[in-house]
Amino acid sequence: MAKKTVATLQTGSKKMTKVIRMVKSPKSGAYVFVEKVVNADEVDAFYAK
């Protein structure tokens, strides 16, 4: 299950959010954390992938 928003960053007029998602590697079966800073409006799209 993906963790929700960790930190909210304010830069100028855009509200940016750091998101972290846990993804299982098909080769090794280990879990890898994918971190990305996205616009606050795109958070749901990031977790939908």
Automatic annotation (TrEMBL):
<dbReference type="InterPro" id="IPR025379">
    <property type="entry name" value="DUF4295"/>
</dbReference>
<protein>
    <recommendedName>
        <fullName>DUF4295 domain-containing protein</fullName>
    </recommendedName>
</protein>
<dbReference type="Pfam" id="PF14128">
    <property type="entry name" value="DUF4295"/>
</dbReference>
